[in-house]
Amino acid sequence: MKKNKLLSIILCFGLILGLIDNEAFAGNKKEYGNKAFSIDSLMKNMEIDFRLNYGFYMHHHFEMEGYRAHFPMFEVSLQKQTYGKSYWQSCFNYPAVGVTAFYSPMGNIDVMGQAFAIYPYIYFPFIKGDTNFGIRFGLGLGYLTESYDHIENPYNICIGSPFNAAASVTFDISHRFTDRFKMSLYGGLQHFSNGCTSEPNKGTNVIKGGISAAYMINEPVPYIRAEQLNEKKTIEYLKEFRPELYVGLSYGYKNIEYLQEDFTTVLDLEIYAMEQLTRLFKLGLGFDLVYDQTEILRSMNANNGVNKLTTYQILNPGAHVAGELLMGNASFMFVVGKHFGEYMYTEKSYQRLGFKLDFGKHIYGKVTLMIHQWHIADFLGFGFGFKL
Known about the structure:
52% strand, single chain, eight-stranded antiparallel barrel, mainly beta
């Protein structure tokens, strides 16, 4: 379990490193693109952001009506305002990327405890200028001091384990008062859940709103516009049909019963082909083969401890359509597909959301969340793959 949590932390911070897109490295074109680590490059357009939130629980299950509280939340972030060093930054209107530390007393409700989190995020501006309006997505690791226990804490039906995924979505409007100082108003959702690694797992949703103040450490760097010559070369390249073939393997673990002694393993082998339609988007088709030990456990529960399924029967094939939003070495992936396994317990239609980070031309790492019926989390997968 500790290894899995450590892997989660590493991949979460891989997200912020990928989105910055090597901002910490400075290169010399005359030296054939050789790059060296540079603190000065890393600190360009770096800001410190303080956020004060206030929120309340959103009861997405009837049995959660007993949790009624209004409470503050606090965030301290280190964020970098991109300025067009990479092509995708100018195309997305120069988003900001960062990592935040989060704390909340969660209403001082004994059964819920306090919440701590750390997660990377990206802010996409819809309107850019002295006054900005946009949306901010964050995803990382959270820790809640109280979780369900059938003896000591039976009323906490939301959180089944101390460690959880922490997710945040907010709509922000900000105004820059000087070149280095700005303030924001925002509202959105804060979410904690463990992705079905422990039961119960209803999760918590908190509606929040607040105010923030950000100060840029150094003088801002002027924005760099996309070069038209490079774009023309890209258009010529994209006219050719060049599908890319990928092979990847993801590992996940699940817990479908309270006090289940061992976690069940989930393996997902995927093979898919992608065609790059624009500089920022790929579309493709793929095939999944899922091995889920949970099906064995369910078979044993239904047959007085006897497993009546063979390994072949719990192999669950599926086909999907995949899209990939490109941001330098990093990309967001989304999948819609259907399983064809005869003995599977879950819904046959599935969705998968994920983040992929390229480590060179042929190797990538990824973290994905498998979902059924668009809202039921199945498992969180960590994997790697090869571009053939």
